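thought: fold this chain, then report.
action: predict
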Amino acid sequence: MAQATTDHNTIRKWAESKGGRPAAVDPTHKGGDVGIVRIMFPDNPQSEHDSLVEISWDEFFREFEDRKLALLYETDGMFSKIVGRDTVQRRAEGDNDAAR
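observation:
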């Protein structure tokens, strides 16, 4: 079962333990705008990282906070998804259809 977190240290440690790096979706990463953030796994052949550009953790977390995001992740697996914090809250309240 996936867990949710907004803790920067937890996110960074989890991602790096899986070979993950902070990234932005290339077409949205322009000028001073970081764009849509993701965690990319360049060593994973199933990772769709061709359209991602690596960014710093500082850029990642600045955007993460500005957009009020959370990370859903499996502690023992590779699953991860960045969602809105409101989605996490609604799911905690029993709305299993909540997604963003």
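thought: worth noting. Residues 8-70 form one domain.
final: tokens above.
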